[in-house]
Amino acid sequence: MTLERADDEPVFRWRLRVYWEDTDGAGIVYYANYLKYLERARTELLRVLGCDQQELARREGVVFVVRAIAAEFLRPARLDDELIVVISRLSAAASRVEMEQYVARDNERLLEASVKLACVNIDSFLPVRLPRSLRELLADRSSGRPKTE
To answer: pTM for this one?
Structure first.
């Protein structure tokens, strides 16, 4: 299943502001913090869909882990910048979810990333199928308007 809007609208958008704690000695966002921004957007997408990850772990015994991530840094973000983290494409298979994400300031892309997540059993950390409830939520998302949090 792939979620990609036919009208080129993103699957999800999440806004944030850059604070002192996000920056390095040069006054730009420290590279590892972009990974945090990407993770927060993924978490907020699930939250908007009504999926509480802690409840998913308790009820279904599954969690998501990052299996692979490839990021290209295009331009720096700076203190007080208002950023938007976008999930532009999302596909789900038996035990994995893949996303294309980017971070932008205004209409300028600062970072582009491809993220592969694995759905794993919380105890064994072995891959398991996505719970049906989550597959249905993701499928419903493809026909809805993009949401911003």
So the answer is: 0.87
